[in-house]
Amino acid sequence: MSAQLLDGKVMSEALRGEIALRVAALKEKGVTPGLAVILVGEDPASQIYVRNKGVGCEQVGIHSVTIRLPETTAQAELEEHIRRLNADESIHGILVQLPLPKGLDEAAALAVIAPEKDVDGFHIQNAGKLLNGLPGVVACTPKGALEMIRRTGIDLNGKEAVVVGRSNIVGKPMAMLLLQQNCTVTMCHSRTVDLAAHTRRADILVAAVGKAKFITADMVKPGAVVIDVGINRVDGKVVGDVDFDAVREVAGWITPVPGGVGRMTITMLLANTVEAAERTLHA
Ligand code: GUN
Predict the structure, then answer these.
(1) How much is the average pLDDT of 11-30?
(2) Would the CB of 156 count as within 6 Å of ligand 1?
């Protein structure tokens, strides 16, 4: 039996429609949500992501600016740009596209972003709030992935969730969100012994390792929800971390790549930007 597709394009269309209505309501109150994206250097994948973020903003009526800085930009100069955006009332969300070129300190740059404008949810204050179960900005990729998992309609209470990958921007926040949903969460990573023994127990399997077709059909429990966060380029084609064609015959639900989690990530960025703008009204 073939898995049901969790289609990020279809889900995003519906969500972006709702976001556009919230943008319109804000504009009626005199607030146009604004997102500033800082892109340092020429990384080709980052250029595509940043362009797609701009397209998403345009689609829902968010004002967006992209600040392109050369690879040679000094840390102090980058931080100066962030401070200027912190003080700019027309900007509600600030995003520093990662990875930064070698020589720049990502953690130090992220720490300069005003936490209320940190629409990526990467500031240590927002990461800490998630860990403590307090309301804050949640990172876009895990937030979008959870939304997709919820749309399966399955009861998450007590389910076995396995997250493969322990990055600060996906694996760790994903695990926290699933824990909040009362899943029993296992985090696996490059040092995990007998990975397949863990993944085969997963009712919900999230793959965020960055290795093409890493999760094979024999590693998946029949009927599982399989969420593929990977974006890998192989021979000019974009493929996920999951061997889609084989795993779809075993899983109950599966996200495609492209058109899955990636699309939802940008939709959540738009949602986080609108939420940041709405907060300024209630402040
Ligand atoms: N690089 C890869 N994913 C992301 C993301 O979600 N946000 C930022 N800022 N950079 C990224």
Answers:
(1) 98
(2) no
